[in-house]
Fold this sequence. Notes:
Blueprint (H helix, E strand, L loop, with lengths): L2 H7 L13 H22 L5 H28 L3 H22 L2 H12 L8 H16 L6 H31 L1 E4 L10 H13 L5 E4 L2 H10 L3 H12 L15 H17 L5 H6 L7 H32 L8 H16 L3 H4 L5 H16 L1 E5 L11 E7 L2 E11 L9 E6 L2 E2 L5 E2 L2 E8 L12 H18 L21 H7 L5 H7 L11 H9 L5 H20 L9 H12 L15 H4 L9 H19 L4 H12 L7 H9 L6 H6 L19
Parallel strand pairs: 5-9
Antiparallel strand pairs: 1-2, 3-4, 4-5, 6-9, 7-8
Helix pairs in contact: 2-3, 2-4, 3-4, 4-7, 5-6, 7-11, 13-21, 16-17, 16-19, 17-18, 18-24, 21-22, 25-26
Amino acid sequence: MTALSLQDALLLPxxxxxxxxxxxxxxxxxxxxxxxxxxxxxxNQADLSYKQLVPTLEQLDDEISQLWGPLSHLHGVSNKDDIxxxxxxxxxxxTAYATQxxxxxxLYLAFVGLLEGEEFSHLSQPQQQFVKLQIRDFKLAGVxxxxxxxxxxxxxKQQMAELSTRxxxxxxxxxxxxxxxxxxxxxxxxxxxxxxxxxxxxAKAKALEGYLLKLDFSCxxxxxxxxxxxxxxxxxxxAFNTRASDQGPQGGQFDNSQxxxxxxxxxxxxxxxxxxxxxxxxxxxxxxxxxxxxVEVFLLDLAKGCKPQAEADMRQLQKxxxxxxxxxxxxxxxxxxxxxxxxxxxxxxxxxxxxPYFALPQVQAGLFNVVRRIYGVEVTSCRGISTWHEDVxxxxxxxxxxxxxxxxxxLYARDQKRGGAWMDECRNRQFKANGELQLPVAYLVCNFAxxxxxxxxxxxxxxxxxxxxEFGHGLHHMMTNIDVAGVAGINxxxxxxxxxxxxxxxxxxxxxxxxxxxxxxxxxxxxLPEDLLQKMLAAKNFxxxxxxxxxxxxxxxxxxxxxxxxxxxxQSIQSVxxxxxxxxxxxxxxQWNRFQHGFAHIFAGGYASGYYSYLWAEVLAxxxxxxxEDEGIFNANTGASLWSDITGQGGSRxxxxxxxxxxxxxxxVDALMRSKGLAPGDKQGVSKGASYES
Length: 694
């Protein structure tokens, strides 16, 4: 099969010929066609069989995905004016359609009929699970509401979608608007050469001399970690942590304050409409956890176990910084800088010292080698595929000589591209109307600093783990063994379990056996020296307590913001965050810090009342990896078991059942505490009240 025919065979978007302006009209026709098809299907027969109902719905959904998916993706990776305009025009149409489908009582009753009918016992496990999840989602979408309430629900969902988009757009605009032009290189003392080269390239792009500092995370992280000039670190910190807010250099210009307040209120109303006391329980109804209160217990138990070590870490940092002439107390813009110096002092290891051994091409090849050893899958490059940028690659994942999935790789930061890293679906695994199997295709996106000065992109070890993390998501999507689209890959997976495969794969970034496969000097090819390797491994849990407490701060803020909201006496979002910080934060933020205004996970992503998922899934991932530790990190039988029990199962079974199938028991927090070096062999105060069962 030629590359060109591969493009057509996989029904891949042709990004080179896409016309965003015409999509809204095309989408209108498609949505109307879908509605008509579903109405006819439901009207023609009272008792529909699974084969009469579900394949038709899958086909209709896939056709919408082929139209909307590429535009939605471009909105994140190439947010030009025409893309943004088309996205804003199409989103309300999709939102209204989704609401209408979710409240279609005849369609709901068709699924109830499947559940209660004789045919149900003859369906496969994935088919049964899909039916059950559909019925659950119909209820959460307000299928039982009266007409007036349904209208209200639809209006609320529409407003929420628009506000989330506005939040994302304003955050991106604020991030790209600010820059710092510097002529005097003395102001950048301490900065690594690679960061200076990036700043020079950024200046040249604007026809400026000297250096240009921007708010993309790579540049921000370099300044905060290495810049000797404290005033520059403070200026950069303030610009980054007041983006899209009422504070800082852009105060009020791209302000998300009202957007966030309205979103929280609208979410509460939606939850109330469908019978929940608050949005947290509404959100958690689709997750592994029992309730918002159960999640709170889990988070507070972790805090109890981790805070003493985090506070000890902070005291040690302050003591060291004071000796180095740092401020007492340390300000937020001092923490990363002195932490790096302390790391170097304690372990004689600099993050910059490691970067030559983590050239992106070598790391990428190593990543593919690692997953080959775990699962037996082969990753190969495909040429001639239409992409949205010349730096984007396209790859096939194969097993025993047969393709099982494909993915796009977009790894470099650039203008008009949303920050962060993520995986998204391009195509789901499912059978098409003609009986052919459609293979899954993924979008995998990162924001690493691009190559400069004739050198390949050199990654920090933290960026290496990011790459492995996102690829773990991609494998979850592409290695699915399930043919029912609604529960294949990441579909139907409880949100607090969806991070398990991604966080699990990060563990191979810390094992000597896997690091030896790709940690090689980009110029000489020499392996990472043994002394550097041992220093890196020794530093693995450096300030682990502080890191966990930071994640707990985010998770508790998100949870309590939605769980404790009272529309009759609403607390300001800032006051909720302040109260959480008083309880768990060990790094004190200045009063003008507006972290929440850039917290896209919960205001523009799918993590509202769900940010705890990262810590929840980290418990699961650490526990799962303990089996590899016992049996060998490249044990083929363990990898095959992981694929058959978890990675390949998608949402076809409850996440807890899949976990216990693989581990032979329920999860324990011990492995996480041990992996963080916080409490070897001891839960350190983590109570048995933390529930992991749905």
